[in-house]
Design brief:
Blueprint (H helix, E strand, L loop, with lengths): L7 E2 L6 H4 L12 H11 L3 E2 L4 E5 L6 E5 L2 H4 L28 H11 L10 E4 L6 E8 L4 E7 L5 H23 L6 H16 L3 E7 L5 E8 L9 E3 L6 H9 L2 E4 L7 E5 L19 H9 L4 E14 L7 E15 L7 H44 L6 H4 L12 E6 L2 E6 L4 H14 L5 E4 L2 H4 L4 H4 L5 E6 L5 E6 L4 E6 L22 E6 L8 H31 L6 H22 L5 E5 L4 E4 L1 H7 L3 H4 L13 H12 L7 E5 L11 E11 L5 E10 L1 H21 L9 E5 L4 E4 L1 H7 L3 H4 L9 E2 L5 E3 L2 H15 L7 E6 L5 E12 L5 E10 L2 H47 L4 H21 L4 H5 L8 E4 H19 L2 E5 L8 E4 L1 H17 L8 E13 L3 E13 L5 H8 L7 H15 L3 E6 L3 E11 L8
Parallel strand pairs: 10-20, 29-30, 35-37
Antiparallel strand pairs: 1-17, 2-12, 3-4, 3-7, 4-12, 5-6, 6-7, 8-9, 8-14, 9-10, 11-13, 13-14, 15-16, 15-19, 17-18, 18-19, 20-21, 22-23, 22-26, 24-25, 25-26, 27-28, 27-33, 30-31, 31-32, 32-33, 34-36, 37-38, 38-40, 39-40
Helix pairs in contact: 2-7, 5-6, 5-9, 6-9, 9-14, 14-15, 23-24, 24-26, 24-27, 26-27, 27-29, 28-29
Length: about 1100
């Protein structure tokens, strides 16, 4: 919608595709200048900081590049104080699967082996060390796989999963709302979309940004917070969205920027790579500096942009004249936020799906508009033909319909042989004569002129014409005669967002600097009419060609009369002959180029018309077909049908919608017959005698083949389902109304219910019941589950298998696995649910029985364990009560110390009893408590727990603890530390030889280290040394690598080792000649009291 004048000189006829220089279609390949800009954008080695990136070689998953924040984000970075012997976990050549848990590594491996890896996104993975969850989003590049990792808060993980499901449901509702809207109203469609996207994402502003044909953009729909300035109706120049950016929007349909002001993160890569890693498909790609500044200038910090693409059909300029589908960028859905905002990948995917559906709806609207234009062209052609049957050219002005019915205009005029015929609002005769002289002088080399502004087209007298005549379409019908259409001024205002669009202003890759002003200003368009559309100019041009042909032949006749000086011939007869000649030529051209198959025969039934479409379908060229009998070109099955049509047409009866089959020839010979639905039309001469028949057809070959195939499949289906073969499973089916529509032979045998007793009865309630008739189900719960399954499939959902059982007519219980699938008719509508029963063999039933017994035994064990835990709580509560009473009494310092140790042991016991989630310990994501505790008191509790085993085993426990330990206060989980040390200490006692002089040494080596200016971390190295032979090797293996048959002692060691790992510590077992040692390394922050220096 540029304000520039659209003035065209018609030197030759141009197709609509040629005249639309401003198409918003994005080129398949960018230009060289755009390529350099693209290089900067997607090989910039920078990502956004809300996630991290790792690129791997696809064959072995070894790292070839990673973002600098990946080690810290994946909890791979060294601790504030590195552990002894700690190595870098992430470096070039590292197998990425070692960074995640086994299940996550397997999921990544599976995705890497999948062809379309994008279909599996996102993949939920967990870090091996911390268990932190991430969404892994994979895509392929030229050198391997790029994995974007977006973090998910562990505490919000169940909510996030539910939120993703909720977002899909919301998207489904939004999609249904879009699809229910009436056609022909794109504005309403856009308004509904922005509201739905706003509800889904919560952005401050959501807009639909449409590209016009000259590539400039306009905000056509918007929702925003009340305090924000509206952008609705604003136009923006094409350079605001450069061609390079449009190219990327065609590749990546969704682009999220969380914080345009946040610092970028660099991607480091293996020096072996020839060029920088491509981040074109990365969800984390950092915005180009120009775009980030552009957003900041607009007052937007975060954005989410989704592209809307539609299909466009263009003619290929090759000999085959086939059609190819190309995709073009129709517009964008743009979301802005005034503060940083992150939208999780599942919700972004739901929005992307919603926008894709919106694109389909827009595509339908565009196709509908194209069909309306095509209909208008056909109607226009009818008007043209009607005009040609009158006195040309005066009849097209003086009679009805006239030239003003051809296109939308305010007036029309014919200037012919120095005479004038005027209709509607036009200039005066003198002014029209002046316009004609101006056209001849300044546009004499063209066949006409069209403009929406005579003033800007350069006509000197435009200012005198005023607002009544602003636009004009003029065509030359002879050397000095013209046909005119006029349009009056239409007031129009265009609101530009800061910068006006100039079609000559191109983005060349060197002018990538952002605008600083977005203040709207108004451009008032004066002395301008509506522009002339291509379809209107096509209609005008067609009329011009017909008139020029007719009038030129008339001039030739007049010239011959003057030279020969023969008696005059009836001018009306000559004119009618000329008109008939022109009409014939035009109709022949229309028939030959029609997109539907058309053929014609003479009175004898021989072909005398064969257009390009039917030649393409049959493979028989026009030259080969001409003169052949039509019955020789049809299949044997259609000969009688064609003979009947020819006979009836010869007597004036024109049959409609008759199906005939044509033979194929040449390169189409192996493709089978062509099936047409044809209408017969009689051709008559001037005396109304029938001289031939025209057949206008519609190719239904593809539809017919599909219907035949569908019919055959239906027949095969019935034969298979009702076959008595033992390989056919039990099958039954439920229709839309809930009634049984199929009950095959195997189902009859299995249930004892005959087919005629089941068909047309309600499947749930009459066939499957909870009463004593039909197939009796075990209980109401089974009936409810079956009802949910079948109704879900009817509603279009994919159903899981259901363990299903019923009593047959002999009261035997039949147990089977039920699979339910939807049946779809030829129109894609779900008509019924087909169900298969997988009945287990006797061997499998026995195995299932054993499995049920095992599961029941496991459930009983869990119940007994729960009972023991519950019973332990009672005496623990009694101990707690006594301790509270003792604490309130008058105790000495030594007594209070003993009471404190007793309380710590009791709290440790309660902690262990409450450990029901063992998996969280095994997978290392259990959260530790963090509170202040005295290290000396915790060690006294450990020592007291070892006293009884020490006495029983007659093995002395020796303690080597520094004096400073008794007053050392730390932050951490003291109860877990007690649990770990007591377990390792008691195991050392258990496997020490019970001989005189045998002892176990518990030694502590603390090391204090300053972190920063005020913080200290204490490194604790516990050594538990006991005599050889030490812990059996099998138990040490179980401590680090448990198996299904793990021993009780091995399980205790394994849990303790895992607890140390959760505390970011390590465990080693050092076996020497005379002794063996547990080495436990942990670290805790030191509590700094005010009195400490």
């Amino acid at each position: 919608m540029s304000s520039k004048s659209t003035t065209k000189s018609n030197n030759s006829r141009s197709t609509p595709a040629q005249s639309k220089h401003g198409s918003s279609a994005v080129k398949t390949m960018p230009s060289s200048s755009e390529s350099s800009y693209l290089q900067k954008m997607h090989r910039g080695s920078l990502i956004q900081s809300f996630g991290c990136l790792i690129a791997v070689y696809e064959q072995d998953f070894t790292v070839l590049a990673y973002s600098e924040n990946a080690p810290e984000m994946l909890d791979l970075a060294p601790h504030a104080v590195p552990s002894i012997g700690q190595k870098e976990a992430l470096m070039f050549g590292t197998d990425i699967r070692t960074l995640f848990r086994p299940s996550s590594a397997a999921a990544l491996q599976k995705a890497g082996n999948f062809g379309e890896v994008n279909l599996l996104n996102p993949i939920l993975v967990h870090c091996r060390n911390s268990g932190k969850p991430f969404y892994a989003i994979l895509h392929r590049v030229d050198v391997g796989l790029v994995i974007d990792l977006e973090p998910v808060n562990p505490a919000d993980l169940p909510v996030t999963a539910a939120g993703a499901l909720k977002s899909y449901k919301l998207a489904a509702k939004a999609i249904s709302r879009l699809q229910s809207l009436p056609s022909g109203n794109i504005t309403l469609l856009c308004d509904v979309l922005v509201q739905e996207v706003s509800d889904l994402t919560g952005y401050d502003r959501v807009m639909v940004y449409k590209f016009h044909e000259d590539q400039h953009g306009e905000v056509v729909a918007e929702v925003h917070r009340p305090e924000l300035e509206p952008y609705l109706g604003l136009h923006y120049p094409a350079t605001d969205v450069p061609q390079a950016s449009r190219f990327l929007f065609m590749k990546n349909k969704v682009r999220m920027i969380c914080d345009c002001l946040a610092p970028s993160v660099k991607v480091v890569q293996d020096k072996k790579l020839d060029q920088l890693l491509s981040l074109c498909g990365s969800t984390l790609r950092f915005p180009h500096g120009c775009h980030a500044q552009y957003m900041a200038n607009m007052g937007s910090i975060a954005s989410l942009v989704m592209s809307v693409t539609i299909n466009t059909e263009e003619d290929n300029e090759n000999e085959s004249n086939h059609h190819q589908r190309e995709t073009r960028l129709w517009g964008l859905v743009v979301c802005h936020h005034t503060s940083p905002r992150f939208v999780p990948f599942p919700l972004r995917y739901a929005c992307e799906f919603l926008v894709q559906v919106f694109g389909v709806q827009i595509n339908k609207e565009v196709e509908l508009a194209a069909q309306l234009r095509e209909k208008h062209i056909l109607q226009t052609q009818t008007v043209l033909c009607d005009m040609l049957l009158r006195n040309a050219p005066v009849g097209i002005i003086t009679q009805s319909p006239n030239v003003m019915d051809l296109v939308k205009c305010d007036g029309a005029a014919l200037y012919y042989n120095n005479k004038f015929w005027l209709l509607g609002i036009t200039p005066s005769e003198a002014q029209i004569r002046d316009i004609a002289a101006w056209l001849i002088e300044y546009h004499g080399g063209s066949t006409g002129l069209s403009t929406d502004s005579l003033m800007e087209a350069g006509y000197p007298g435009a200012s005198i014409l005023g607002d009544e005549v602003c636009g004009m379409a003029a065509v030359k019908i002879t050397k000095t005669d013209f046909l005119f259409w006029f349009r009056s001024h239409m007031a129009k205002e265009i609101r530009w967002g800061g910068a006006k669009h100039d079609p000559d202003d191109k983005d060349d890759g060197r002018r990538m600097h952002p605008r600083s002003s977005f203040k709207a200003f108004l451009e008032v368009v004066k002395r301008r009419s509506l522009p002339w559309e291509d379809v209107e100019m096509d209609a005008i041009h067609s009329l011009q060609l017909i008139l020029r042909g007719s009038l030129q032949e008339e001039e030739a006749v007049d010239d011959s009369k003057m030279m020969v000086n023969v008696p005059s011939v009836d001018a009306g007869s000559i004119l009618r002959v000329n008109e008939l000649h022109v009409v014939t030529n035009e109709m022949v051209r229309l028939i030959e180029t029609a997109s539907v198959p058309i053929l014609a025969v003479d009175a004898a039934g021989n072909v005398n018309g064969w257009n390009a479409k039917i030649a393409e379908l049959t493979g028989l060229s026009m030259q080969e077909a001409m003169g052949l009998p039509l019955i020789n070109l049809v299949k044997d099955e259609s000969i009688d049908v064609v003979k009947k049509m020819l006979f009836l047409a010869s007597r004036g009866t024109e049959e409609q919608n008759v199906e005939i089959e044509l033979k194929t020839f040449g390169h189409q010979q192996n493709n089978g017959p062509i099936i047409l639905v044809a209408n017969a039309c009689c051709n008559r001469d001037v005396n109304e005698n029938i001289v031939g028949i025209c057949f206008v057809g519609q190719d239904i070959t593809g539809q017919k083949l599909i219907m035949d195939m569908y019919t055959r499949i239906q027949g095969d289906y019935v034969g298979i389902v009702r076959s008595p073969c033992a390989l056919i499973p039990p099958i039954f089916m439920m229709g839309e109304d809930g009634r049984c529509t199929e009950w095959n032979n195997v189902m009859q045998v299995l249930s004892g219910v005959k087919r005629e007793e089941a068909i047309d009865r309600l499947l749930l309630g009459e066939v499957f019941t909870i009463h004593n008739f039909g197939c009796r189900l075990k209980d109401q719960d089974t009936l409810t589950k079956l009802q949910i399954l079948l109704n879900g499939v009817i509603a279009g959902q994919d159903a899981d298998k259901l363990l299903f059982g019923f009593f047959d007519q002999k009261d035997n219980f039949v147990e089977a696995l039920l699979s339910a699938n939807k049946r779809i008719d030829a129109e894609g509508r779900i008509t019924s649910v087909i169900c298969f029963l997988h009945v287990a063999s006797p061997e499998l039933q026995c195995a299932l029985q054993v499995q049920r017994i095992s599961e029941q035994a496991a459930a009983n064990s869990l119940m007994k364990l729960a009972y023991i835990r519950r019973e332990i709580i009672n005496p623990v509560n009694g101990i707690k009560c006594l301790q509270n009473l003792m604490e309130s009494s008058n105790l000495s310092k030594e007594q209070r110390q003993l009471l404190k140790t007793s309380k710590l042991c009791r709290e440790q016991l309660s902690k262990i009893v409450d450990d029901t989630d063992i998996e969280s310990i095994e997978e290392s994501y259990m959260e530790m408590n963090s509170s202040e505790f005295n290290l000396g008191e915790a060690l006294k509790a450990v020592i007291n727990q070892a006293m009884i085993p020490s006495q029983d085993r007659k093995v002395q426990v020796i303690y080597d603890l520094p004096a400073e330990v008794s007053s050392m206060s730390l932050y951490g989980d003291n109860l877990r530390l007690q649990q770990i040390l007591s377990d390792f200490l008691t195991n050392a006692l258990l496997f020490s030889p019970a001989i005189e002089g045998s002892s176990v040494l518990l030694k502590l080596i603390p090391r204090k280290e300053r972190i920063g200016t005020k913080m200290f971390v204490v490194h604790l190295e516990f050594r538990i040394t006991h005599p050889s032979p030490g812990i059996p090797e099998k138990l040490i293996q179980e401590m680090f690598h448990p198996s299904q048959s793990i021993s009780r002692e091995g399980l205790g060691l394994y849990i303790s080792q895992k607890l140390v790992k959760i505390m970011n510590g390590t465990v080693q077992y050092l076996r020497q000649v005379e002794s063996s040692t547990f080495i436990i390394l942990v670290e805790f922050p030191l509590v700094q009291h005010k009195y400490q220096r």
